[in-house]
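Work Package 3 (structural annotation) set out to generate three-dimensional models for the target panel prioritized at the project kickoff. During this period the team completed the workflow that converts sequence records into discrete structure tokens, so that structures can be stored uniformly alongside our sequence database. As a representative example, we reproduce one entry of 248 residues exactly as it appears in the project archive.
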Amino acid sequence: MPWSAKAQALLQQQYAAVGAAATQALPVVVASLEEAVNNNLPATALLEKYKHRLQQTSDYVKAYQQYCWPVNSLDDYKLAPFHVLATEGKTYFHKPHEWHMQTIAEICAADEQLLHATPYMLVEIGDTESEQQAIGMWETLTASGKEGMVIKPYDFLASGEKGLIQPAIKVRGKEYLRIIYGPEYDSPEHLERLRQRKLAGKRSLALREFTLGLEALERFIAHGSLQQVHQCVFGILALESEPVDPRL
């Protein structure tokens, strides 16, 4: 779904504002530094720094523009479902992700104007060729401006030695991360800071929200009372209010 449809205020007040301000200011700075260098002043290092910042800003603007297009009617939307959560009286958590993707592709074929069947691949962990194919797919997607890929275990619900495995991990591309962390995030000093982030709390919250979501849906499908369903929903809302960096 285009950001211009669901987050117009965010685009105008955050992403576009940063891009517009930097795009207007940095060329003036670069021009002044070039003039200083031409006059034999010791500003070469500073000039190179601000040229790099200008390029980072350009990459930042291109990155968020990938997700914006005019929205005038329902024909301008593209929806890409990836789970069949439930139908009347039945959930599908016991089905593997491959079944979900195949089933959804059949559904999407009924209306390709609105629905988009998400491409996917099965990866055999430990098989070098299979892993390289997945890496190649990720590189192709991110090079074309896509956000990245979502890595999931084969089974919808998968467990390991320590219990339930995190159901999905987003592997974003370099340019999409620029939108999240800012135009200059890939400068060495910022990358070092970002590597120090603590992710354990976010992972714990994600697992708890996931299991509460499953329980809420099971109760709803079983025609449980709204009070029973809302117990889970309010639990999720409470977890969502935890002070965690939303960019993780």
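The CA atoms of residues 103 and 221 lie 20 Å apart.
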